[in-house]
Amino acid sequence: MQRSNSVTTLGPVAGLTLVLVASACLVSPPPSGEGEGEGEGEAPACDDPVLGGFELQTGYVVVESAPLPADLTAAAVSASSGAAPRLFGMGTDLIVYDLGEWPALGDARAPLFDVLTSADEALAPGADAFPSFLVVDGTAAATGYTRLSDFGGAVGKHAVGESYDAWLDAPANFSATIAGDLLLVNGAGLDDTQAGLGIYGWSEDAHFLIASLGTGATGSGYLASTSGGALVAGRYTTKNELFAIGPDALAARLAGGDPIDLGAGGPFLSGGYGALAGFGDAVAIVTYDQASFATTGLVEVALPVAAGTVTPGSPVNVLVLRQGCTTSLPFVAPHEGDVLVGVSTSAGTRAVRIARQ
Fold it and tell me: Helices (H), strands (E): how many in the chain?
């Protein structure tokens, strides 16, 4: 199975976090009718050259897409003012590469930075060390990984185009998002701030607990931020749960207020919801089937902000998997108000940009 946010392959990241996808359940059943081009007794239409077995729902459009190398675990777009967007990818070797201008990717790629710290550089990727996330916002990027030996790990900050890399110890780090100059990490600690499962912030000169996942949490979850300033934070109790944090609550904590307690309020979604990405002022969420742990689709949830608070909407289907198909969505990432989705079939993986019509 795979995940992303931000955006990576799900491996045995940590005992605290592995249960997230394993707990997923079916959110909405795939359509039972025949797909385009199907007839009675024929196989399902699972071989669309862009979307595989997924059916794009009314109200959405594919803007562009490109095939990806086979040895990537995550991808994200670097889009800064005045420059053409570029696609970055985290390799199975735990190195982040510049794959070229999006979407006209070439065969050449340039290594940008290592995910592992120098202390862990001897660890074998995929056997001793596992990727947690790759997130990019303009020229700012962040990565995370965990070790199999002790479920510890590190989170790195990287400045694209500059010789800047910095790492902090980060046990059980699972996901992250960038909001302005603040990196937010869902995990069990950051450097010497180790307050258990929570959302941790890393600004230019400080790191601190932003929100506790609450006493009911047994595992961490995904993170995403929206263009309207809302934050979506996940946790696992006996199932996956998603919470919305408004900009006023976040600002109050950054101003010195008490850490937010996610357990004090109810989740706006629970069950088979996995990887997240900002989708303009909404969030895009990958959905999973509880019995098979297979991807079932992609939904979006509007997160309008008014007077500093956020009011989540109801899930709306963006992609729905046709019955009999096995196409998966290994990652999702924001892309200038749209969403970038990894679509994986037996023929390989494509990055697909989806927008609202």
Answer: 2, 28
Tell me, what's the pLDDT at 29? 33
Pick from 165, 217, 234, 302: nearest CA to 6: 234
Residues 223 and 184: beta-carbon distance below 8 Å: yes
Counting beta carbons within 10 angstroms of the beta carbon of residue 271, is it exposed (0 to 12), middle (13 to 18) or buried (19 or more)?
A: middle
Q: What is the residue-wise DSSP string for 49-109? A: TTTBTEEEPTTEEEEEEEE--TTEEEEEEE--TTS--EEEEEETTSEEEEEEESSS--S--
Peptide bond into 31 cis (omega under 30): no
For residue 29, what is the enclosing H or E element?
Answer: none
pLDDT in tens, 55-97: 999 999 999 999 999 999 999 999 887 789 999 999 999 999 9
pLDDT at res. 163: 84
Please, what's the b/e burial string for 272-281 (b: 16 or more CB within 10 A of its CB; e: otherwise)? Answer: bbbbbbbbbb
Spell out a b/e string for 292-306, using b for 16 or more CB atoms within 10 Å of the CB, else e.
ebbbbbbbbbbbebe
pLDDT of residue 194: 95
* Neighbour-count burial for 241-265, b at 16+ CB within 10 Å, e otherwise: bbbbbbbebbeebeeeeeebebbee
What residues does 234 pair with on adjacent strands? 242
Taking the C-alpha atoms of residue 100 and residue 28, their distance in angstroms, rounded to an integer, is 37
CA triplet 196, 200, 202: central angle to 5 degrees? 140
Q: Report the alpha-carbon distance of residue 64 to residue 6 in Å, rounded.
A: 20
User: For the chain, which ranges sit under pLDDT 50?
Assistant: 1-43
Q: How far is CA 256 from CA 73, 192, 225, 244, 262, in A?
A: 37, 18, 21, 20, 18
